[in-house]
């Protein structure tokens, strides 16, 4: 009887201790398990192999096997355990973990990864990225991509969202159209709901593992669910962020100061991996003459452009922005020193070409014909809308009368393709410098400018696997372009993102890419 | 009346076909096409772009593309979006409920407020109440919808936190967008109703009704309002189709997943199948609403019914 009493007392103490222990724990905020991200762009679809524009949702669903480190200097593993290259540089060898699974729990073999890349080549609009691929070898969980030449240009593709791995067997069984609405991949989350135009909701993939060396958490993300909300209007996105309904949001440049003043928010600023530049039509006089192009290059004052764009851009003289692979700060400094803002030098060059202000109206003329050119700009692109009148004024100050022609994107593209323009503002964004291959290589249908030397450097840039050598190669290309002036590099834009201060542990790369593995609230 | 309705529907079908031809022509006037526009020329080789154009039939002559599309339409196929690859019908179906919810609610609320206000303003014509109604609704009329939307959002959602800021999150998230769509056009409908009521009040049959000893409220509701509402009813049905596709800016501000945003995105991407699909829907809705407007006004006013029947008989 005494023993029974003793047990009862012990049990009571245990229950009390348990209750006390539970009650004593700090209550976990139910919102701590949820991450809400606001983006501006509509979602084309969920299948990375079918969309034209990738978005964070594709990163959630179908993660890339490798990524660039935070400084965009070298490739590091992500889903793959390791990445290495064959001695001749033509093969990329990736080893995936044995227990790799799709987000719905199905196991992933090397053959599944091969099938995913074969489908990419078959249906993706960007299948040309794989043009140099010879074959894909699979040995267990080791996948080897064998190329005809060392694929330096391809590394950016492999580290991009576009190389995310999807479940091809599922895609084939449900059809591409259905799969684009309900894609499944090896990413950190499983899509549970997509309401077009509104939001997409994801459930944590419990099988997820990342091998990124710069993150501490190698397991599943810390948020049970992630919701990506589509909020096109910048002010509305900011209001949602300020109200605490959204944890992280893309910020319009005009709102960044308001974010910076808000103690509850943290502003992230990063240069975009791309640039806005002025493109000359070399098929037309007077732009065919290098000295004329050089004169306009001397007339450009990038500080004024920066002012007009509210300091939301960074000036650029070479071919690459600081967020791009193979960028060289030394080359930038050298090019800047060689081509300062010098309106006097611009006037002098134009005078050497026979232009003079015969009637004293401030506009140069030659053989009685005033020097009038048209600047083609894309309507709706904020940076171009703001830059065009500044350039117009700067060129007018050296005696060149400029008419601005703002057109919609389709018109600008067609006019440029048909060489029906004088000078045009243009922009692009891609992390790899090989992007210039399409603008300057003689094999392209409508290159801006070509030269045997530029061809050689562009071809070399595609195969140089050593980053230092590649950087030197593109520095040389930048010098050649600066000498010939087929374009005038103007600026790169900054990408602004903001998050609530209670969201901690984000890793932000030099180009603004965010890694969420260690993030928590 | 039936004969007339059938004739109107027949003309409506021809109108819809004419709309498709005009729209197709306008879209063809735009340079390039969806593939050339959305495919990044700096990353996609030209031969791949041409391959994608062939895949979507964009390399064929415009008239072949049109008749192919029309043939599919007659079989109930709206085609696939060039940008997303999804069925146009599915895309529209995913957006239409949200738009209808907003459009029908705001239209209903708009008329539920405007008609009584117009009636009161007319009955109390020249009074302070009349001036107050006219001035207030004119102020709303003068404010651009997008600006009013931002102001209401900042006041009611951001500062007072009474309603969600954006997106569809249940019925409470409809309040501010519905107010934004309802308030600006009040001025026009109130003035129209007021003018019609004032005209009707002076009519001899209204005087007769008063002389018969009917109560003031009864005269206003049964005799005055019924007659004054005829043009207002027609306006309601004519306005409905464009509320479905025309709330682009409001949908953008409130991140509302409706048709307006889909239409805007599809036009900017030159996604012809989606643009055609939405426009067909709006054209059909316009024709149907026109016919319904005629029928309803005929039901409200026997004189119109008789005139329409006579016109149908000729």
Describe this structure in words.
- The complex is a heterodimer of chains A (521) and B (314).
- In chain A, the strands form five sheets. In chain A, strands 1, 8, 9, 10, 11, 12, 13, 14, 17, 18, 19 and 20 form a twelve-stranded mixed beta sheet that branches. In chain A, strands 4-5-7-6 form a four-stranded antiparallel beta sheet, covered by helices on one side.
- Chain A has 521 residues and is an alpha+beta fold.
- In chain A, helix 16 packs antiparallel against helix 17.
- Chain B is mainly alpha-helical and 314 residues long.
- Chain B starts with a helix and ends with a helix.
- Chains A and B meet through helix 6, helix 7 and helix 14 of A and helix 2, helix 3, helix 5, helix 7 and helix 13 of B.
Throw out a few tags for this protein:
heterodimer; A: 521 residues; alpha+beta; 4-stranded antiparallel β-sheet; 17 helices; 22 strands; globular; B: 314 residues; mainly alpha; 77% helix; flat
């Amino acid at each position: 009887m005494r023993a029974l009493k003793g047990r009862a007392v012990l049990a009571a103490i245990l229950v009390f201790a348990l209750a006390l222990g539970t009650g004593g724990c700090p209550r976990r905020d139910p919102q701590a398990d949820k991450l809400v991200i606001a983006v501006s762009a509509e979602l084309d679809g969920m299948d990375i192999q079918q969309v034209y524009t990738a978005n964070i949702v594709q990163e959630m669903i179908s993660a890339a096997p490798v990524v660039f480190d935070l400084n965009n200097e070298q490739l590091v593993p992500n889903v793959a355990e390791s990445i290495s290259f064959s001695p001749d540089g033509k093969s990329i060898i990736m080893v995936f973990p044995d227990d790799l699974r799709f987000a719905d729990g199905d196991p992933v073999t090397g053959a599944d990864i091969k099938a995913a890349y074969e489908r990419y080549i078959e249906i993706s609009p960007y299948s040309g990225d794989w043009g140099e691929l010879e074959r894909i070898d699979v040995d267990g969980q080791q996948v080897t991509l064998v190329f005809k030449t060392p694929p330096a240009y391809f590394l950016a593709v492999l580290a991009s969202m576009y190389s995310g791995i999807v479940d091809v067997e599922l895609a084939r069984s449900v059809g591409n159209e259905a799969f684009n609405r309900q894609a499944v991949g090896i990413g950190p989350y499983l899509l549970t709901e997509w309401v077009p135009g509104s939001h997409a909701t994801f459930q944590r993939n419990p099988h997820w593992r990342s091998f990124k060396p710069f993150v501490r958490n190698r397991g599943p993300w810390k948020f049970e669910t992630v919701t990506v909300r589509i909020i096109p209007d910048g002010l509305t996105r900011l209001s949602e962020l300020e109200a605490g309904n959204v944890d992280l949001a893309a910020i319009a440049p005009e709102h960044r100061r308001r974010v910076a003043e808000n103690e509850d928010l943290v502003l992230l600023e990063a240069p975009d991996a791309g640039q806005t530049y002025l493109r000359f039509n070399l098929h037309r006089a007077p732009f065919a003459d290098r000295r004329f192009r050089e004169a306009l290059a001397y007339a450009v004052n990038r500080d004024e452009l920066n002012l007009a764009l509210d300091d939301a851009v960074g000036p650029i003289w070479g071919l690459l922005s600081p967020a791009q692979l193979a960028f060289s700060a030394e080359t930038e400094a050298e090019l800047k020193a060689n081509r300062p803002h010098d309106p006097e030098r611009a006037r002098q060059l134009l005078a050497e070409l026979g232009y003079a202000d015969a009637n004293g109206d401030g506009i140069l003329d030659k053989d009685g014909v005033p020097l009038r050119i048209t600047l083609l700009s894309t309507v709706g692109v904020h940076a171009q809308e703001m830059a065009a009148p500044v350039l117009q004024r700067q060129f007018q100050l050296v005696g060149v009368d400029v008419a601005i022609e703002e057109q919609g994107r389709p018109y600008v593209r067609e006019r440029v393709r048909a060489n029906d323009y004088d000078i045009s503002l243009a922009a692009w964004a891609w992390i790899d410098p090989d992007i210039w291959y399409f603008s300057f290589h003689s094999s392209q249908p409508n290159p801006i400018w070509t030269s045997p030397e530029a061809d050689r450097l562009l071809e070399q840039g595609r195969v140089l696997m050593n980053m230092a050598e590649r950087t030197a190669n593109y520095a040389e290309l930048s010098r050649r372009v600066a000498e010939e002036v087929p374009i005038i590099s103007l600026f790169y834009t900054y990408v602004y993102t903001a998050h609530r201060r209670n969201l901690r542990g984000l890793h932000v790369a030099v180009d603004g890419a965010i890694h969420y593995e260690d993030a928590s609230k | 009346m039936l004969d007339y309705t059938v004739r109107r529907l027949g003309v409506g079908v021809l109108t819809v076909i004419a709309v498709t031809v005009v729209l197709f022509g306008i879209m063809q006037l735009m340079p390039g096409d969806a593939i050339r526009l959305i495919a990044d020329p700096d990353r996609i080789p030209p031969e791949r772009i041409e391959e994608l154009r062939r895949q979507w039939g964009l390399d064929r002559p415009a008239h072949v593309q049109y008749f192919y599309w029309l043939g599919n339409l007659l079989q109930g196929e709206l085609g696939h979006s060039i940008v997303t690859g999804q069925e146009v019908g599915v895309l529209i179906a995913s957006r239409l409920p949200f738009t209808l919810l907003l459009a029908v609610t705001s239209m209903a609320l708009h008329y539920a407020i405007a008609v009584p206000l117009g009636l009161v303003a007319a009955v109390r014509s020249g009074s302070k109440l009349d001036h107050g109604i006219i001035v207030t609704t004119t102020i709303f009329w003068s404010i651009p919808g997008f600006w009013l939307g931002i102001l209401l959002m900042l006041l009611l959602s951001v500062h007072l936190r009474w309603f969600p800021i954006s997106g569809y999150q249940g019925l409470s998230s409809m309040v501010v967008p519905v107010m934004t769509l309802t308030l600006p056009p009040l001025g026009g409908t109130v003035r129209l109703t007021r003018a019609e009521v004032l005209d009707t009040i002076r009519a001899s049959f209204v005087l007769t009704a008063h002389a018969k000893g009917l109560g003031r409220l009864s005269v206003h509701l049964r005799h005055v309002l019924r007659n004054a509402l005829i043009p207002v009813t027609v306006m309601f049905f004519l306005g409905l189709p464009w509320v479905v596709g025309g709330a682009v800016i409001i949908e953008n501000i409130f991140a509302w997943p409706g048709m307006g945003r889909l239409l805007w995105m599809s036009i900017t991407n030159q996604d012809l199948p989606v643009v055609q699909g939405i426009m067909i829907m709006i054209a059909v809705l316009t024709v149907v609403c026109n016919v319904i407007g005629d029928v309803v006004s005929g039901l409200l006013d026997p004189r119109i019914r008789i005139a329409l029947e006579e016109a149908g008989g000729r």
